[in-house]
Amino acid sequence: LNHTVDPIIVGASVIAIKYADGILMCTDTLASFGSMARYKNIPRMAAIGNSTLIGASGEYSDFQEIIRLLREKEQEDFIQHDNIKLSAAHYASYLSSILYGKRNKGNPLYNSIAIAGIINDQQYLAYLDLYGTHVLADYVTTGFAAHLCKPLLGNEWRPDLTESEAKQLVESCMRTLWYRDARASNRIQFAKVTREGITFEDPYVLQSEWGYDSYKTYSLNPLYA
């Protein structure tokens, strides 16, 4: 059987937003086996070349296949030795075609993807899914973040955000996911793409507060009796 018929090892949300000097992307580092928090230190972002950053939720082995395909394409481009480098837009278009083709053959790659890069000093950020959908946006959310965090980003995002402000906004979204999404983790990792290149930060554990009365008295609420 060569087809992925049911995602098994799955990553949760990805959040990526443009800010004044680049694009910031964040994921947690958890890959779940069903409802089990199986792998707690899994990177869900990767660099393709020096200027393209990709992050994905969904089936982890399919994400690994996507990275293999994109790095194979990067190698083909390098071999041409023509002083022309593929950009994030090229990789996104290429991947969109692959996703659409595999979906049509009943063998989809079960992922929702954010691709970010800098093209001619302009930020490029795209969302792709297993159907081949390819949408450009100022901020991208996948997984449960598309339901819980998009309103938060819509209220607070602006194009002149500093890196610190963008990080604070995304961190607040990741904290909301930690509280509300059963497949999320409080161990998160940031990466950014700027005109200088791609930088990955070390993962760290979010600060959280579970002492609220609404949490402590949840089982006493007559609505849930």
Layout of strands and helices, then pairs:
Blueprint: E1 9-11, E2 14-19, E3 22-28, E4 31-33, E5 36-39, E6 45-48, E7 52-59, H1 60-80, H2 88-104, E8 111-119, E9 122-128, E10 134-136, E11 139-141, H3 145-148, H4 150-156, H5 163-180, E12 187-194, E13 197-200, E14 204-205, H6 213-216
Antiparallel strand pairs: 1-4, 1-7, 2-3, 2-11, 3-12, 4-5, 6-7, 7-8, 8-9, 9-10, 12-13, 12-14
Description of the structure:
It is a single chain. The chain is α+β, with helices and mostly antiparallel strands and 225 residues long. It is 32% helix and 32% strand. The chain contains six helices and 14 strands. Strands 1, 4, 5, 6, 7, 8, 9 and 10 form an eight-stranded antiparallel β-sheet that branches. Strands 2, 3, 11, 12, 13 and 14 form a six-stranded antiparallel β-sheet that branches. A hairpin with a 2-residue loop joins strand 4 (31-33) and strand 5 (36-39).
Q: Care to give the gist of this entry?
A:
By secondary structure, the chain is α+β, with helices and mostly antiparallel strands.
